[in-house]
Amino acid sequence: MGERVEGRRAVLEALRGGLDLVRVEVARGAKGDSAIAEIRRAASERGVPVFEVSRESLDAASERGRHQGVAAILRGFRYASLADVFAAHAGDAESTLVVLDHVTDPGNLGAVARSAEAAGAHAVIVPERRSAPVTAVVHKAAAGALAHLPVVRVVNVARALEEIKRAGYWVVGASGDAPTDLWSAPLEGRIALVLGSEGSGLSRLVSETCDVLVSIPMLGRVGSLNVAQAATVLLYEHVRRRSAGR
């Protein structure tokens, strides 16, 4: 069976976003809940069957036990291709991609996807190996964003960045020791924001492939943000500049 999507918002967005769902499972006794009622209506409109199951069975199948009384089963998450993303946005003067260099924590991947979709990004790009795949935990952390945001898997991040450059994107890597700070970095137009792994940051080759490296100013005693927080800061500085330019 395919991946599980857990949580009320994530399941509702999966239904609204047209993900290929096998069924929805609802905990017995949740009939009067307004959110569950909305999920039932959306499932009915999509022709997706809804089954009442025990809360114990939802607990047993859940990766982290945070299903909120509802889960949906996908036939299998469909990753997009770079070619699909390029074709969809070939004529866009403004386009944002988020590239993750071996981010292995599924919660971080989901949180990045949530921020990316909210900020109007067009795709999240991850490597096939040494990276978190899309699982129920990712769907839960993404809060429905993956129903609207393509995720691309690539064999090699550095080579993918070269393709992204040829498609007209300026590649900006996040690095804590970069001399250029975020506020003065070039972030207009077609941008690919690249963030590294939770422990070691950008790999050497990926770092060298970026057009520019930028740092996020840190005024407190903590030396860095985690990858999901950093992604949000970068994305919304880009959003701010787009809004200011209109």
Give a written overview of the molecule.
This protein has 246 residues and is an alpha/beta fold. It is 37% helix and 22% strand. It has helices spanning 8-16, 34-46, 55-61, 82-88, 106-118, 136-142, 157-166, 204-209, 227-244; strands at residues 4-6, 21-27, 50-53, 70-74, 95-101, 123-127, 151-154, 170-174, 180-181, 190-196, 212-215. The protein has a seven-stranded parallel β-sheet, sandwiched between helices. A four-stranded mixed β-sheet has the order 1-4-2-3. Strand 6 (123-127), helix 6 (136-142) and strand 7 form a beta-alpha-beta unit. Helix 5 runs parallel beside helix 6 (136-142) and helix 5 packs parallel to helix 9 (227-244). The chain is elongated. The mean pLDDT is 88.
Class of the largest domain, according to the CATH hierarchy?
Alpha Beta
* Tally of distinct domains: 2
- Specify the biggest β-sheet: 7 strands, parallel
Query: Mind telling me which CATH architecture of the largest domain this is?
Result: 3-Layer(aba) Sandwich
Strand content: 15-25%
CATH superfamily of the largest domain: SPOUT methyltransferase, trefoil knot domain
From the helix content, strand content and strand pairing, which structural class follows?
A: alpha/beta
What distance lies between the first and last C-alpha atoms, to the nearest angstrom?
47 Å
Proportion of helical residues: 25-40%
Q: Name the overall outline.
A: elongated
Query: What value does the Rg take, in angstroms?
Result: 19 Å
User: What is the mean pLDDT?
Assistant: 88
At the fold tier of CATH, the topology name of the largest domain is Alpha/beta knot
The number of helical elements comes to: 9
Strand tally, please? 11
Q: Order of helices and strands, N to C?
A: EHEHEHEHEHEHEHEEEHEH
- Strand order, main sheet: write it out: 7-6-5-10-8-11-9
